[in-house]
Amino acid sequence: MCRVSLIPIRPGGQGGPRNSAQPAADTERRDAARNRELLLRAARGLIEECGAAGLTMAALAQRAGVGKGTVFRRFGSRAGLMMTLLSDAEAAFQGRFMFGPPPLGPGAEPLERLIAFGVERIAWVLEFGELARAAEESPYNRFDVPAAVLWRRHLEMLLREAGVTADPWLMAASLSATLEPERLLHAVEAHNLAPERLAGSWRDLVTRVVRGA
Amino acid sequence: MCRVSLIPIRPGGQGGPRNSAQPAADTERRDAARNRELLLRAARGLIEECGAAGLTMAALAQRAGVGKGTVFRRFGSRAGLMMTLLSDAEAAFQGRFMFGPPPLGPGAEPLERLIAFGVERIAWVLEFGELARAAEESPYNRFDVPAAVLWRRHLEMLLREAGVTADPWLMAASLSATLEPERLLHAVEAHNLAPERLAGSWRDLVTRVVRGA
DNA sequence: AATATAAACGGACCGCAGTCCGTTTATAAC
DNA sequence: GTTATAAACGGACTGCGGTCCGTTTATATT
């Protein structure tokens, strides 16, 4: 005796939400654009006051002066909103590891790039962690969000370049598990772990993985 | 303008819930014991019919013929209920890696034990994964649940025995991240990954970590 | 300017986890 | 048997994420 309650793959009803930070293509109604700006501004303000964990969708709607339905139409879900708020920082990080200067960007040895990736990622999480954690509260996915897929592919590529031939896809998945925001934040917040220690452990782990052929 | 909403460390109000499967000490009122049995029986039935994800606390209360408050008094939270339901399987697994026969239990080489630990854990997660996933939906902790602490300590000990001297505590944390139910289940369910491939990758990872001094 | 229409809007509504607090009851003491 | 009391009980209530659907409106077309 249980309602079947099938899994909502795409929470936004029929039309997928436009959850991007940029104006999202040419055709967009003025009111929609204005409301998105209003909502993003209100969200940032609310987070500044209450923290990301303290933001509720109803409060956001009220502060922005729009209906709750509009909030969900824009962002699809709370996690979608958080991802939108993160998208600039995320894109900047992506740019750095794909096109930036070594050792993070191309030009350095694969192992050095792997080390730099983790170290920078740890710093990134410690800066934007509260948002990142909130963005991962999506009921499903979270592993198949575009950004996460991209990191894993990047790690996989570096592993291959470094000569790790045994199932680099899964190895990249394991390594990225180590870098998940929730884990890192928990270590720092609950155990008072120094960020440098996290970075050191990452260096050690990835070095062993590459060298231990 | 936001309600401060402080973090509920222990959800059960003043007195902690008795969320153990066994009768939990000598002094327990008859009605409480009877209701716990009723609730556990009802929970198992409900999960059989609807899956762990489909179990709601209200439905459980109704099926057991008790009030909703009683359910939360017993188990503290939904995650607490799931942990209680898992506790037998969990204890059995703990017994095997602590006192059982090699290569999982004592007697084998540390690296062999590490490999066996991951392989058995993967099999365990694939068997009880739905429950385990539901048990990890606790808003905070999840890393500091007794069972999780115990695995990490076990991994840490094996790493030390295997000669891994560089921050074995964090290394154990990284390794256990690889084995988290949500990750493993996602790989198997969403990417149709063969369990043997997971096991193979674990073997490879842990071998590299130990050998790559 | 009038009209058509697809898009956006808004807020009542739903289901669920978790809480509160007045009521009931098992147990022990006498 | 009576009484005291701590424990357990139950269900109305709250807050939140998310949905539905009737209403409004921006924009294109004529």
Can you offer a commentary on this structure?
Chain A is mainly α. Chain A folds into two domains: 30-75, Arc Repressor Mutant, subunit A, CATH 1.10.10; 78-211, Tetracycline Repressor, domain 2 (Orthogonal Bundle). Chain A has helices at 30-50, 57-64, 68-75, 78-99, 110-135, 146-161, 168-178, 181-191, 195-211. The longest helix of chain A is centred in the middle third of the chain and has 26 residues, at 110-135. The A-B interface holds A 1-2, 4-5, 46, 49-50, 54, 59, 143-144, 166-167, 170-171, 173-174, 177-178, 180, 183, 186-187, 190, 193, 197-198, 200-201, 204-205, 207-213 and B 1-5, 46, 49-50, 54, 59, 143-144, 166-167, 170-171, 173-174, 177-178, 180, 183, 186-187, 190, 193, 197-198, 200-201, 204-205, 207-213. The structure holds a DNA duplex (30 and 30 nucleotides).
As for the number of domains of chain A, it is 2
The CATH first-level class of the largest domain in chain A comes to Mainly Alpha
Percent range for β-strand residues of chain A: under 5%
In whole angstroms, how far apart are the ends of chain A? 54 Å
What is the fold's blueprint, element by element?
The structure is a homodimer of 213-residue chains.
Chain A (H helix, E strand, L loop, with lengths): L29 H21 L6 H8 L3 H8 L2 H22 L10 H26 L10 H16 L6 H11 L2 H11 L3 H17 L2
Helix pairs in contact in A: 1-2, 2-3, 4-5, 5-6, 5-8, 5-9, 6-7
The structure holds a DNA duplex (30 and 30 nucleotides).
